[in-house]
Amino acid sequence: IMLGQGVLRDGRSLHEAYGCDLDKLVEGDRVGVMRTSQGDLKFYVNGECQGIAAGNLPQILYAVVDMYGKCAQVTLTAPSTPDS
């Protein structure tokens, strides 16, 4: 889970200061998530990789979007990878 500026895995904190602060995003900003072929989880904000958030992930994952704060709308787009 990426929230604010931290990352949780199974309810435990992995990073307390990871990437940019999600609470400071504004309308039109984009957040992406990718599981690499090496099993790492990476988040992207406006196309910029925030680094490895977690590693050793299973091959099949499910995404969940939880809207909070001032967020009023989320748009899911077709998958794309920044490296391609």
TrEMBL record:
Matches recorded under InterPro entries: B30.2/SPRY_sf, ConA-like_dom_sf, Neuralized, NHR_dom
A Pfam family this chain is assigned to: Neuralized
Gene3D superfamilies the record matches: 2.60.120.920
One GO MF term attached to the UniProt entry: ubiquitin protein ligase activity
Signal peptide range: none
Domain (NHR) ranges: 1-79
Parts of the chain that traverse the membrane: none
PANTHER family: NEURALIZED, NEURALIZED-LIKE PROTEIN 4
Protein's recorded name: Neuralized-like protein 4
Species of provenance: Halocaridina rubra (Hawaiian red shrimp)
The organism's taxonomic lineage, starting at the top: Eukaryota, Metazoa, Ecdysozoa, Arthropoda, Crustacea
